[in-house]
Design goal:
Number of strands: 0
Strand content: under 5%
Number of helices: 7
Shape: globular
Radius of gyration: 17 Å
Organism: Ancylobacter mangrovi
Largest sheet: none
Protein name: TIGR02444 family protein
Order of helices and strands: HHHHHHH
Structural class: mainly alpha
InterPro entries: CHP02444
Pfam families: DUF2390
Length: about 170
């Protein structure tokens, strides 16, 4: 992919993600969906953006194609950085807290940059697909498709988090 078009890191999907996260309760709801249902929050935000902004029908086929084409980035960068950041969270006996927290902050910044790149890759990928401007999925349908890939349901214990995410999607669009 070295000869690919340069990525626009502060493109529409990145700005959408920032607006989405600024909505009340969005961050906590996403963390809950990530921790309790295994949802890829970047994929969730992408699905909402694709449906609400790009006008793409978000279904299992679209999400699986995105995973197939771009999943290596998440696997090789985002997830290892997240794992390191989380391992640095508890108190440690082998490193002073201030030093550990400084390292954790740097790893968190790297994780955020890796997610920003993932979002830019997803936006570039989606804009090259046919079907934009067609019958878009609703925010609820997009969330349900992402949850289905994680074998989770939008009802039950996660319904309040799902409702918060859907409201945040509306606020961000």
């Amino acid at each position: 992919m070295t000869d690919a078009a340069p990525l626009v890191l502060d493109g529409g999907l990145w700005r959408y993600a920032l607006a989405f996260y600024a909505a009340p309760g969005a961050s906590a709801a996403c963390l809950r969906l990530q921790d309790e249902a295994g949802v890829d929050v970047v994929e969730l935000i992408f699905a909402l953006y694709a449906s609400r902004v790009l006008g793409l029908p978000v279904d299992r086929a679209l999400l699986e194609a995105a995973r197939d084409d771009l999943g290596v980035w998440r696997q090789d960068t985002v997830l290892p950085l997240r794992a390191i950041r989380r391992r640095l969270k508890p108190a440690r006996t082998d490193c002073p807290d201030a030093t550990k927290e400084e390292l954790r902050r740097l790893v968190q910044q790297a994780e955020l940059k890796a997610e920003q790149i993932q979002l830019a890759l997803l936006e570039q990928w989606a804009r090259a697909r046919p079907g934009a401007g067609g019958p878009a999925s609703s925010a609820m349908d997009a969330v349900a498709e992402v949850l289905a890939l994680s074998n989770a349901s939008p009802e039950g214990a996660l319904s309040d988090a799902v409702g918060t995410v859907v409201a945040a999607a509306g606020a961000a669009a």
